[in-house]
Amino acid sequence: MENKPLPPHQLPEKNRCLTNNWCGGLFKPGHTACAGCGQAIAARLVVEAAGPKTIIANNTGCLEVFTTRYPETAWGVPWIHSLFENSAAVASGIEAALKYLGKKDSTNVIAQGGDGGTADIGLQALSGMLERGHDILYICYDNEAYENTGIQRSGLTPYGASTTTSPPGNNSIGNILPKKPMPEIAAAHGIPFVAVASVGFIPDLQRKVKKALSIKGPKYIQIHVPCPLGWRHEVNQTFQVAKLAVETGLYPLIEYEFGVLSSRRQISPKPVEEYLKAQGRFKHLLNNPESIKVIQEIADYNIKKYGLKGAALDTKPTNV
Amino acid sequence: MKELLEGSRAVAELVRLCKPGVISAYPITPQTHIVEELAQMVADGELPAQFVNVESEHSAASVVLGSQAAGVRSYTATSSQGLFYMAEVIFNIAGMRLPVILTCANRAISAPINIWNDQQDSLSLRDAGWIQLYAENNQEVVDFHLMAYRIGEDKSIMLPVMVCMDGFILTHGMEIVDMPEQEKVDKFLPPYKPLYLLDTENPMTFGALADPDFYMEARYALHKTLDSVLKLLPKVSEEFRGIFGRDYKDCLVEEYCTKDAEKVIVAMGSVCGTIKEVVDAQRAKGKKLGLLRIISYRPFPYARIYEALKHVPKVAVLDKALSLGAYSPIAADVKAAFFGKKKAPAVISSFVAGLGGRDITLDSIKEIFSRLTIKEVNSAFVDLKPELLREEYGE
């Protein structure tokens, strides 16, 4: 064919059809994600913010499955999947190889996975990557359950959510355990940058990715990505649900620099019911004021802890 | 140059000569001396590699998977539980056709926990798709690592290689080793040129999902490639002899006094030195004994074993490992080499010795030869202590 698409890095800037990907973008359409998948949108936003000089190591999970079903791939950047829990370690090897080749300064390395691959089975490899100081950005796409295997509970499943392994019943309100504080765990490594983003706030998400990639060293970004299948919301409500999580205080958009809280997105808090009632996974709680009260307390705690209603923070890290 | 070296030091020296760009490992006895030596070389500026200290063997294997995929020659080493913790990644590295080189300092497996030598660790991972070479002494350890890089990186192969050396016996043993010169190593082993790599100038997807329409062909290709190693190893060995002067023949097996032998032991690794000593002593007394040493356990050289043993009346297979509840691993493979063939030994007995570091002495070998009679035995243990066994085990 005469009109064989050029690889993205050879296209003029203006033609790098970042949304209309058919001509050879970094994250092409035609993948097999569900309608309304928050992770697919976020993954595209991440790779487009990172640009073509990027190598990605991906954990096993939805994103890997729906983007790379042989012989097709959605990825316009070099991309590798090895196992469920080792993208941080595989990326460490890639980064070491690039250093050896003298190519690290001109190449971004991103490791990424879902919440289970990050906060549960991949936590050790991630901690090792953060502690060793590799120049890698780790992205956790947090859809709050093992959606790929059929919506099982993960360490990042929020309190009260119904999953297939934390179902509500006569003796249970669903998942009774709190969400693992992954951003704080990452920040406790003293790394230069940790951020929480949401697919409901696109410019903020892409700003955080670009900021992270401008900093040398290990970085961690956790992105809230609604899953219509697992969360049981309408497929056209992905952005609305994502926004409500932030606006209720249940998913604070924060940043840490060198372990110190350095930025937070201000909100005018909405009641948590607005977020809960949009999703089938919390439906069983709507007639249970006790549980809703607990979830409201979680939001109130976040609002107080991070000062989500207070004045904007000085973005410079302090030694306090 | 001939030097008196500890086995681990010899491995480290050889790895340095092969110029890897990334080394990653996690501490485990008896492998640690190897990577300690390499870490020192990196610290001293003698080896311009990235040394990645990881938090587990799983990550050590994952790091070298990533670095090799990025187009850089890589190295790791482990033992026992460490190899098992890597197991998931070990299979993955082979499936992704990445020619990583790993030294397995062979050690027993828990439980009971035991840090001493047998070969249960690497034998248990025989189905992973790696080439496995077993060394008898530290000269072979050095030479096999060099050949490992050469074979694994061959464009027609592109597979990882595990060089197995008996823990403590070789890793901590001092021997005279003829270390190859850098110039000759460079002649034998050209710089690593991957067929495919993670490169932003030519983006590719590695590790895609293969559904039932594609998975079997990928595994078939892996299987067939391992078979083809049986043809390549003799060629590489010949080239090695031309440059370094040491002759490993086809590098699949070593036949030691097998031609007219009435009884032959089949074995792998350092115990073969002990067996050779017994064979020599008994031959001096007129007894026709021999040894068939397996060097390449995967791929398994069925045809060579058949040729070497088809006229031998009695064969004993010595395993330093078990397949619990079944024939011992090497014994099962050796027996399979004769199934449905016109010629075969009248007896193929199997013996288990040296588990968890119990010494296999000259007497142990003599005992195996004496228990090798017309009555076939399977997984017969040698040097058991009956006083430690309860009556119900019938010992």
**Sequence of strands across the biggest β-sheet of chain B:** 3-2-4-5-7-6-13
Determine the fraction of residues in helical runs of chain B and give it as a percent range: 25-40%
What's the SSE pattern of chain A?
Answer: HEHEHEHHEEEHEHEHHEEHH
CATH homologous superfamily heading of the largest domain in chain B: Thiamin diphosphate (ThDP)-binding fold, Pyr/PP domains
Class by alpha and beta content of chain B: alpha/beta
CATH superfamily of chain A: Thiamin diphosphate (ThDP)-binding fold, Pyr/PP domains
CATH architecture label of the largest domain in chain B = 3-Layer(aba) Sandwich
* Gyration radius of chain B, in Å: 21 Å
CATH-defined topology of chain A: Rossmann fold
Taken as a percent bin, the fraction of beta residues of chain B is 15-25%
How would you describe the overall organization of this protein?
The complex is a heterodimer of chains A (320) and B (395). With 320 residues, chain A is of the alpha/beta class. Chain A contains eleven helices and ten strands. Chain A has an eight-stranded mixed sheet, with helices on both faces. Chain A is globular, with a radius of gyration of 19 Å. The model of chain A is unreliable at 15-23 and 315-320 (pLDDT under 50). Chain B has helices spanning 7-17, 32-43, 57-69, 80-95, 120-124, 138-152, 182-188, 215-244, 271-284, 302-309, 329-336, 362-371, and strands spanning 2-6, 22-25, 50-53, 74-78, 101-106, 131-134, 161-166, 174-178, 205-206, 253-256, 263-267, 289-294, 296-298, 314-319, 347-352, 380-381. Chain B is globular and about 65 Å long. With 395 residues, chain B is α/β, with parallel strands linked by helices. Chains A and B meet through strand 1, strand 2, helix 3 and helix 5 of A and strand 3, helix 3, helix 4 and strand 9 of B.
